[in-house]
Write a sequence for this structure.
């Protein structure tokens, strides 16, 4: 999660990510296995492709890991590209977007956006290496959540 948003992305890269679920998965897989694959179960470093796009499967114990597991995008019930858009906007504190506004922009239900935003905020709070600015923008988000 942290790694994802520490990465600097160009406007073009972002636009591509916000429009394509496939690109988002590819991006997540890149970040997640940046230093190579290690099976969570047995520690093996060899993998073959899993059943779902961009997932990896341990060649030894056959445990499959999706590129979203362990991230805020895990079990996301709406398109990941939309989730990405919300996450990026919230994390970067780029602009103060309400969940109603997210819902309008992304054609999602407000409750869906609200739930996801809450998930992001909770994840962000547990990060250690946040700067003061990042932290204060998250606190701002949290205090507005009931609106
Ligand atoms: Zn394994």
């Amino acid at each position: 999660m942290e790694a994802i948003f520490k990465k600097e992305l160009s406007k073009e890269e972002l636009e591509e990510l916000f429009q394509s679920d496939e690109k988002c998965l590819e991006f997540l897989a890149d970040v997640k296995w940046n230093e190579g694959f290690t099976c969570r179960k047995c520690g093996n470093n060899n993998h073959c492709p899993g059943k779902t796009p961009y997932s990896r499967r341990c060649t030894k114990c056959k445990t499959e890991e999706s590129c979203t597991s362990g991230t805020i995008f895990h079990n996301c019930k709406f398109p990941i590209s939309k989730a990405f858009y919300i996450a990026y906007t919230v994390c970067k504190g780029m602009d103060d977007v309400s969940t109603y506004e997210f819902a309008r922009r992304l054609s999602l239900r407000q409750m869906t956006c609200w739930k996801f935003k809450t998930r992001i905020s909770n994840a962000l709070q547990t990060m250690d290496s946040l700067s003061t600015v990042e932290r204060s923008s998250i606190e701002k988000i949290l205090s507005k959540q009931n609106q």
In short: The mean pLDDT is 84. The chain is about 50% helix and 5% strand. The pocket of zinc ion is lined by residues 39, 41-42, 44, 58, 60-61, 63 (CB under 6 Å).
